[in-house]
Specification:
With 156 residues, the chain is α+β, with helices and mostly antiparallel strands. Helix content is 25%, strand content 46%. Strands 1, 2, 3, 4, 5, 6, 7 and 8 form an 8-stranded antiparallel sheet that branches. It comes from Megalodesulfovibrio gigas (strain ATCC 19364 / DSM 1382 / NCIMB 9332 / VKM B-1759).
Length: 156
């Protein structure tokens, strides 16, 4: 990382960013072209869980290439400078995480059920029932990160 003063070294701080972000951007590669899609997610046992239909572009790409990139940001805020006429002095406060890892697609009913429960627990305090017909059409993608970096500015 070029700007060492912005680097987040603490694994707990990185995990906190992952837990507080609402949306994760999942990056994949499709025949040499990058493809990024926003997804809901949960962090469970150092793995990122994402739900998906079993068919579609995202699943086709992951079946061909399990390497992924994830990105989240949180705590964003515009910082206006003392001299507001100087555009170069404007900046953003933020916390972000970028990671690289591998995705595993799970389709067995028990794993999908647990994954859906973890995802809903992250976004709601309610308990939900997932009908078998829904579970049969759903996959859970588990991303294990091999490298992860955190960056922050303005929140030191």
């Amino acid at each position: 990382m070029r700007r060492k003063e912005k680097h987040m070294n603490d694994p707990a701080a990185i995990a906190a960013v992952l837990r507080s972000a609402d949306v994760l951007h999942l990056g994949m590669c499709d025949d040499g072209w990058p493809y990024v899609t926003p997804v809901n997610f949960a962090l469970v046992d150092d793995r990122i869980l994402i739900h998906s239909a079993r068919k579609g572009r995202k699943m086709e790409m992951l079946r061909k290439n399990d390497r992924v990139c994830i990105q989240v940001e949180t705590d964003t805020a515009l910082v206006e400078p003392a001299a507001p006429d100087n555009a170069c002095q404007y900046t953003m406060r933020f916390r972000s995480v970028i990671g690289f890892g591998r995705a595993v697609i799970h389709t067995d009913a028990a794993t999908v059920q647990r994954g859906l429960e973890a995802l809903m627990a992250r976004y709601s305090s309610r308990q939900f029932h997932f009908p078998a017909a829904v579970v049969e059409k759903t996959a859970v993608i588990a991303v294990t990160l091999e490298t992860v970096t955190g960056k922050q500015d303005g929140w030191e």
